[in-house]
Design brief:
Length: 336
């Protein structure tokens, strides 16, 4: 469980993607203000790099650079009053008129602040709205999600991708309607992906970096019997969690024990899911919930010497909370 939460930075825009650094500092993105920011150990915020578009997801690569999922400015932002907390900011339900027509994966040199675009397309098709990113320990590639495009009447489906850090190869692994958070299990044999508006969490069994175990070959009604519990036809993964009621799932992190910690919207907070195989927990499939006073709790990260410090982005109020976890987070493959 996450406790002792306190606001350590306020007055920010629509924030996402906290990444812990050594010495008690952190990085984060501001989608609304279009920038990469630092939060130092004294909780002072500073702009590091302007990133036009919609910087949405962030991870540190093996070269020490920051890799960014840029949604291409798909979102506009609307304000609405909250009589108890003051003005709030939320995403518009309509795609922005400033949308670039594609999203992109970008590399940010944290020393020179140079921004390089690595990918805008896959197999000739534009990336729509890249959202979240995680590196495996191979030092060669990363997984990322694309959330697709939502309008009041339709969804243009997003998906799951794997790409190499040198810009030479990108592969679409699966189509997922509103793919958002992505994270690896401690052994890197399972990849977790959240599907926002359906409140789902997928688990993909892996055969190595960039390699997902394929789904059963379904050609007839009888072949449906080949599907394992939670599997959907033609999707190389299985649904391991569906939240009840109106709960949307955003970005996620995995802790050292293998639990999946998911930013949860509307019923806002962090949902902590226990998959099968977590040591010492008798009830796989159960959830814990940490409430955050913000309509859109989008993301979190673990850090500190014991990996029990937690930073949480509360995006409607533009607030970063910091607290402590009673279980250490999973140390990322690479750090800043």
């Amino acid at each position: 469980m996450i406790t002792d939460l306190k606001p350590v930075a306020t007055g920010l825009g629509f924030i996402e993607a906290p990444v812990a650094r050594t010495g008690g500092s952190a990085l984060f993105l501001d989608i609304q203000k279009q920038g990469l920011y630092s939060l130092d150990a004294d909780n002072k915020v500073a702009l590091l790099v302007n990133i036009p578009g919609g910087p949405n997801g962030l991870a540190i690569g093996p070269d020490g650079a920051a890799y960014v999922c840029n949604n291409g400015h798909i979102y506009d932002f609307i304000g609405f009053p909250d009589l108890t907390k003051g003005p709030l900011t939320s995403l518009s339900p309509f795609p922005s008129k400033q949308y670039m027509g594609h999203g992109m994966i970008q590399r940010v040199d944290l020393n020179t602040h140079e921004v390089t675009t690595l990918y805008t397309h896959c197999d000739g098709q534009p990336l729509l709205t890249p959202d979240d990113i995680v590196f495996d320990s191979s030092a060669k590639g990363f997984w990322f999600t694309d959330s697709g495009i939502q309008s009041p009447d339709s969804i243009q489906k997003g998906g799951l991708y794997y790409a190499l850090i040198d810009g030479s190869s990108i592969t679409k692994v699966a189509t997922i309607a509103t793919a958002n958070g992505v994270g690896l299990s401690p052994k890197e044999d399972i990849l977790y992906v959240s599907d926002t508006v359906f409140g789902r969490l997928y688990a993909f069994d892996l055969d190595g970096p960039g390699k997902v175990q394929p789904p059963p070959d379904i050609k007839t009604m009888e072949d449906l019997g080949k599907l394992k519990p939670g599997m959907l036809p033609h999707v190389p993964g299985r649904v391991v969690l569906t939240l009840p009621g109106l709960q949307w799932v955003d970005s996620l992190k995995v802790d050292a024990s293998g639990r999946v910690c998911i930013g949860t919207l509307v019923n806002s907070g962090i949902t902590i899911f226990t998959p099968e195989g977590v040591a010492g927990d008798p009830v796989p499939g159960t959830t814990e919930f940490v409430a955050i006073p913000d309509l859109m709790t989008t993301n979190l990260c673990f850090g500190g010497p014991d990996m029990c410090d937690v930073w949480i982005t509360a995006s409607c109020t533009g607030t970063i909370y910091k607290g402590r976890s009673d279980r250490p987070g999973l140390r990322p493959a690479f750090s800043a």
